[in-house]
Write a structure and sequence with these properties.
The complex is a heterodimer. Chain A is mostly beta strands. Chain A has one domain: Aromatic compound dioxygenase (Protocatechuate 3,4-Dioxygenase, subunit A, Sandwich). In chain A, 7% of the residues lie in helices and 31% in strands. Chain A is globular, with a radius of gyration of 18 Å. Chain B is 5% helix and 28% strand. Chain B is mainly β. Chain B has a single domain, classed as Aromatic compound dioxygenase (Protocatechuate 3,4-Dioxygenase, subunit A), CATH 2.60.130.10. The chains are: A mainly beta, B mainly beta. The interface between A and B is large, with 74 and 77 residues. Strand 11 of chain A pairs parallel with strand 1 of chain B, so a sheet runs across the interface. The complex binds fe (iii) ion. Fe (iii) ion binds next to strand 8 of chain B.
């Protein structure tokens, strides 16, 4: 395999569109509801249960059907379940923080808990979209009624208008008591939300 | 200091790409926020016993129509470190070019012996193997006569690695006109499998596809 001479790294396999037919039989209900641990287990993650209701919209305001949506977030204490935090006493054994669903229509409901703020960062959820027509795109959403947004370094790198586009709004409670938050994720065009580049570093 | 992210390009002749590709440049992630952008995917299990063999729906059922192939390769990160215990989710059209998916409304025939989805895990050296039926090309844009070349969808997840890609076949007439292949340019070559012979096993031929997951913020060593 050819190596990237500059950094002596292998050249990555190209990402490609997921296409319209991501198998529905790959779905896993446990990845669509992180407020549960496993069905039948009497254990629940710490934190405030929330439901994130989202709409994925294209440049014409049409729903982006058939999209695979992935979520990544910290637990209620603001700790990510990644190798870097192995053994951390603030790890919640009943919470992984990785979710995935495929939305048939372009609307989705993701059940989880409110991620905690952590050192320097406001509560947020990383959202990755895999859709027909495009390769992976990534953003991060925040919660309008949580503290710390005014000093979050990612939010503060954006214009006020763009900050608002990444803020989910609290809109009532579900029957089960979970707080409902809503967000419109406009993928392209006039009200396009900011997406982030996780391949390029500042200064490169 | 270059201070802009990539400008994503729109796949020519791909309507969905035109509708869904962000028009603004991607924003750079402040260094302090980078860790939060690198998901770590927990391990999951298999659902079917013969998930590695897409050529038949169950071990006791007949093989689907078409050319049975083995696909194998090594999964590694950019530093060449093998990625073990990662899950590959695989899906491809049948011999005729039809997906057994509720949203594939084409008139191409289904094959009663072909499901077309499977999952495998990489071993301790990052190697994976699965069998499938060589997929048919299908007409993606009847209005302009554009075909999708033969391809196999592969999604890689596990630990710090996350990638969705497609494996293409060498010397296919429709490779050159595929909108995503056009965007990849010379890099497209890396997504084409390398044929090998399979004299001792029950498939017609093999296709080697080494996968390199690269370019993410944090590389966790599994
Ligand atoms: Fe396809």
């Amino acid at each position: 395999m050819k190596a990237n001479m500059q950094a002596d790294l292998l050249l990555p396999t190209n990402e490609d569109t997921v296409g319209p037919y991501f198998p529905i039989n790959f779905s896993d209900p446990l990845l669509e509801d992180l407020s549960q641990f496993e069905s039948g287990i009497t254990a629940q993650p710490q934190g405030v249960p929330i439901i994130l209701k989202g709409r994925l919209l294209d440049r014409y305001g049409e729903l982006a059907n058939g999209t695979v949506v992935e979520f990544w977030q910290a637990n209620a204490k603001g700790v990510y379940r990644s190798p870097k935090h192995e053994g951390d006493s603030d790890i919640d054994p009943w919470f992984w923080g990785y979710g995935r669903l495929r939305t048939e229509s372009g609307e989705f409901e993701f059940k989880t808990i409110m991620p905690g703020p952590c050192a320097d960062r406001a509560s947020n959820i990383t959202i990755t979209l895999f859709s027909d027509g495009i390769s992976r795109i990534v953003t991060q959403i925040f919660f309008a009624d949580q503290t710390g947004n005014a000093s979050d370094p990612l939010l503060q790198s954006l214009s006020c208008e763009d900050q608002a586009k990444l803020s989910a709004r609290h809109e009532g409670e579900a029957d089960c008591g979970s707080k409902i938050y809503t967000i419109d994720i406009v993928m392209a065009g006039e009200n396009e939300i900011p997406f982030f580049d996780d391949l390029i570093r500042e200064g490169e | 200091m270059s201070n802009t992210g990539r400008q994503l390009k729109i796949g020519p002749t791909d309507n969905t790409s035109d509708q869904r590709t962000p028009r603004n440049r991607l924003r750079l992630i402040p260094e302090i926020a980078r860790e939060s952008f690198a998901p770590y995917v927990p391990q999951r299990g298999l659902s079917r016993q013969n998930d590695w063999d897409l050529t038949r729906i169950a071990p006791d059922l007949p093989r689907a129509e078409g050319v049975a192939i083995e696909v194998s390769g090594k999964l590694q990160n950019e530093r060449g470190t093998p990625i073990s215990n990662a899950m590959l989710e695989i899906w491809n059209a049948n011999h005729f070019g039809r997906y057994r998916h509720i949203e594939d409304h084409s008139n191409i025939p289904l094959d009663e012996h072909f499901l077309g989805t499977g999952r495998v895990f990489t071993d301790s050296e990052g190697n994976y193997t699965f069998w499938t039926i060589s997929p048919g090309a299908y007409l993606a844009r009847p209005d302009i006569g554009r075909w999708r070349p033969k391809h196999i969808h592969i999604s890689v997840s596990g630990g710090g690695s996350r990638l969705i890609t497609q494996l293409y076949f060498p010397d296919e007439p429709n490779n050159a006109s595929d909108p995503m292949a056009i965007l990849m340019g010379d890099d497209f070559e890396r997504n084409i499998g390398k044929p090998y012979e399979t004299p001792k096993i029950d498939v017609d031929s093999g296709l080697n596809f080494d996968i390199v997951v690269g370019g993410r913020n944090a590389v966790y060593f599994e």
